[in-house]
Amino acid sequence: MKELQNSLGAYLKLHWKTAVFLVVLLLGIGLADQFVDSYMRRILNLCAIYVIVSLAMNLVNGFTGQFSLGQAGFMAIGAYTVAVFTVPIESRAAIFYLEPMAPFLANIQLPFIVALILGGLVTAVVAFFIGYPCLRLRGDYLAIATLGFSEIIRIVFTNTQSITNGALGIKSIPTISSLWWTFGIALIIIIATVLLINSTYGRAFKSIREDEIAAEAMGVGLFKTKMTSFLIGAFFTGIGGGLFAALLGTVDPKQFYFTLTYNFLLIIVLGGMGSISGTVIASFVVTLGQEALRFLDEPMAFGLDLPIFRPGLRMVVFSFLLMVIVLFYRKGLMGTNELTWDFMAEKYRALKKRLGGKKTATEGGAKK
Amino acid sequence: MVVGMTMETFLQQLINGLSLGSLYALIAIGYTMVYGILRLINFAHGDIFMMAAYFTYFGIAVFFLPWYVTFIITIGLTMLLGVTIERVAYRPLRDAPKTSLLISAIGVSFLLENVANYLFSGKPMAFPEFPLLTTPFFIGGLSIQPVSIVIPIVAFFLMTALLFVINKTKIGMAMRAVAVDYDTAKLMGIKINGVISSTFAIGSGLAAVGAILWCMKYPSVLPLMGVVPGLKCFIAAVIGGIGNVKGAVLGGLILGFSEVLMVAFFPALTGYRDAIAFVILIVILLFLPNGLLGKKQVEKV
Amino acid sequence: MKKTLSLLLSMAMVVTMVAGCSGGTKTSSADSDVIKIGVFEPLTGANAAGGELEVEGIKLANQLRPEVLGKKVELVIADNKSDKAEATTAAARLIEKDKVVAILGSWGSSLSIAAGDVVKTNKVPAVALSATNPQVTAGNDYYFRVCFLDPFQGTVMANYAYKNLKAKKVAIIQEVSNDYSVGLAKFFTDSFTKLSGDPNAIVATGNYNTGDQDFNGILTNIKAANPDVIFAPGNFTESALIIKQARALGITAPFIGGDTWETNEFITVGGADVNGAVMSTFFDDTNPLTEAGKTFVAEYKKAYPNSANIAAVSALGYDGYMMTLDAIERAGSADPVAIRDALATTKDFEGATGMITIDANGDATKNQAVIKGVKDGKFTYMDTVTID
């Protein structure tokens, strides 16, 4: 007992900042959950879901160096699993009004959390069958093959009327509104990813990213390691998709058009391919930014009738930003660094030095 | 489901497949050329194709230029667009990790789609009609639009011309050299930038021709019209063996015929039509990763 | 662990920042000399053309009747980008940030369905204008609509095909990725097989996806089946291309469809080939069904003198706005729940598209549809049909 106390004490001594931070964070979520309105709540929930999916994408793309573009399809699987298994049985007849739900599914209803985890698992199983042929391919083929699979999933969901209700989609999915669901799961996934990355597996992932042939020579099982990363990523993405379905309360195949994946691509590129904290920051920046930039789509922005402000401008600005980041800040906000206390202290010192040093430096801080 | 299919229907489907496949082939050549040289999936290729359709639309329907002038301007502008994209978005990243280049390509594609959506709105624009080419003539019960014959002829002609350029001219030799070994080619004094620019120019020019013919057959112009053809034509290039011009044409034809014949023989599965390209892709990559006509590539350390 | 957990700082910062600033917007609800009505429409993306037309009608209605209960009515327009995730945030934003008391829209049933949950939990009524899918109002006390439903429209067209065109064999081309098209095709099939008494009356079915451009494959199959009529509900661009390609293949059977065809793009893309295409819709400007319809037509022509014809969805936008204002007046307050109750008891409201009585589901009970055809490149009134 005493030993435990001692080690806990030692831990706190070493990590008191982190501990304080964690408490502040939990308090922050609790406060936000109490006081924010439903609009803000929706956006925050979306931010957390984007954190989950982007993190999963970064695990595969950033840490393992496998360029996969299947996020939209994986989310669809998670979302549909939650939708199919949580919709109240009594409203199913009304929803599946064109073609009744397949009998083997029609009477199964699962609690949300069970459906959510099942969604993650189903996604991982599908990912296995996708990864089996695809992960042996060279990088850019993998991109197009996963993108293709993502589209196939969407097309299959459009056509399997008695399971997914086809184009009609499924509505009346019991919704979540508490921030604890999304933020809680996001936190768990962040911690899990951090632990994973710092484990033997994580090092194997990174070795593949750096040099496949060298990694193989060092005894890293390429296919097995890539598959591990791919499956974990898919599992997380499925969970993210399930939360997405429960947030919106409705799913249909069109939501999972492959351009959805580009959102997450923008996030991981902005945050830094291979940075967990970068991904988290970028998820918030992008999601909140998309809302904040809504004025670009409104002709009456600034009270003037400017013809350049009209629907569509926001997405132009967004895609332009993606290009600017790729071309000029290739490493994104964080590169492969993490936002640790040491990192911040170092940055702070550098900043102080630079300000003291007679404004010689003009380069932006983002350009690490 | 083959019940009741007459010879006439079958022949009609073959004609449909031929013209669709030839269109795919034209666009696939552009992919294959860029991939052959830069080892890059030019995600923006489908959107270059889309912009070419808008250029033609504006030339004829808005500025009332004669069609031949419009075609020349369109091909010129599209080539310029392709070269500019390479110059601005790909060249600075030539020594960067492959992933950055791929992301840049996706970024350009996304940007072009959004710019088109912003400038031209999401509403379809009606491509000008060419009655001479679209008014069908009938042989027995078969209906054939002249354009359906023009498309394969143009595709074949351009393929032959391109093969001539690649195999018999100086610039073609330089292209082949760069494709085989980028660094050595550089050491041999080949002006890499010029070669890559001309590759993009030719690829985009073919996309422009493809767009003009495509729109004659399917006369609506939309910001996202290039996405699906773009993906499919990349797949066509992979089927044939990426980097190989004849392969791209072969892949395009295979894809066009498979799509149409699937619809013909399995009408119940028509909803899955867009999936077939991807299914073929996976099968090819599993069993013939270098495509039908591609050479085996060894990964170098 | 040290470096691992610290990275969460960013999250906490954003959360607290957001929590801090979101409190500030609450004050605007106290601002009571304007009544805000949200307009929730796709202004970009695939459904943009339809969304713009509805907004046109709503704006016109707003100009004609800018005040209710002595207060100015302000329209707050939100773009839902033809995307469901955007649609729910746009609806939540209208309610929470802009404090609207009612919402109008959206073109596209799936977008309205997506917003359904938001309006229901926040207890703010919404009026769908042209969303014909039964699911929009089903099980939702806060969603109403001013147009008829898919089953009705399917029946109308089946009747037209069977009675007016004397069709025995029909081919159906549906847009599988479009809920509207799939629903309409199904209701048409049910109605038509019942009318004709022939379970095999549907001789061929073709499916396509939104954005497809080549339909020669499915059309060749259909040509082989030799139908009397082809029913092809779906998006106007694809439908126009289908008709064009069908004519090029030598298919002469008439094409019939639903209300989504009635856009200028259908005619510009389809050209001469769409002449003779027939569709059901909600309204026709040359034959208004009511006095309100005549007023609407006159005012519309004044406001948009260059417009060739008036889209039915613009008329529905007009009706949605007027009906909501009528409800606010009857409720005597701008309280969203009171407005909902007043909307639910709407009876014999005279709209531009006909008399509207809201039933227990929140749907407008309408038994009249307009049949229009394309003639010489123009949508032309053909008939008004009543079905009981």
Describe the overall structure.
The complex is a heterotrimer of chains A (368), B (301) and C (388). Chain A has 368 residues and is an all-alpha fold. Chain A has helices at 2-35, 38-63, 71-86, 89-95, 103-106, 112-134, 139-159, 161-164, 179-197, 200-210, 212-217, 222-248, 259-271, 276-292, 313-328, 341-356. Chain A has 2 domains: 40-249, no CATH class; 258-368, no CATH class. In chain A, helix 3 packs parallel to helix 7 (139-159) and helix 3 packs across helix 12. Residues 358-368 of chain A have low confidence and may be disordered. Chain B contains 12 helices and 4 strands. In chain B, the strands form 2 sheets. Chain B has a two-stranded antiparallel sheet with strand order 1-4. In chain B, helix 7 crosses helix 9. Chain B has helices spanning 7-38, 45-62, 67-90, 98-120, 131-134, 146-168, 170-180, 182-187, 192-217, 227-240, 245-265, 273-287; strands spanning 125-126, 137-139, 142-144, 220-221. In chain B, 56% of the residues are buried. Chain C has 2 domains: 31-148 and 290-357, Response regulator (Rossmann fold, 3-Layer(aba) Sandwich), CATH 3.40.50.2300; 151-281 and 371-386, Rossmann fold, CATH 3.40.50.2300. Helix content of chain C is 43%, strand content 19%. The longest helix of chain C has 20 residues, at 312-331. Chain C starts with a helix and ends with a strand. Residues 1-7 and 9-30 of chain C have low confidence and may be disordered. The chains are: A mainly alpha (368), B mainly alpha (301), C alpha/beta (388).
Q: What keywords describe this structure?
A:
heterotrimer; B: 301 residues; ABC transporter involved in vitamin B12 uptake, BtuC; two-stranded antiparallel ribbon; 4 strands; 3% strand; C: 388 residues; alpha/beta; Rossmann fold; 6-stranded mixed sheet; globular; disordered N terminus
Report the CATH C-level class of the largest domain in chain C. Answer: Alpha Beta
Main β-sheet, spatial strand arrangement of chain C: 8-7-9-10-11-14-15
- Provide the succession of SSEs of chain A: HHHHHHHHHHHHHHHH
| Secondary structure tally, helices of chain A | 16
Sheet having the most strands of chain C: 7 strands, mixed
Helix content of chain C: 40-55%
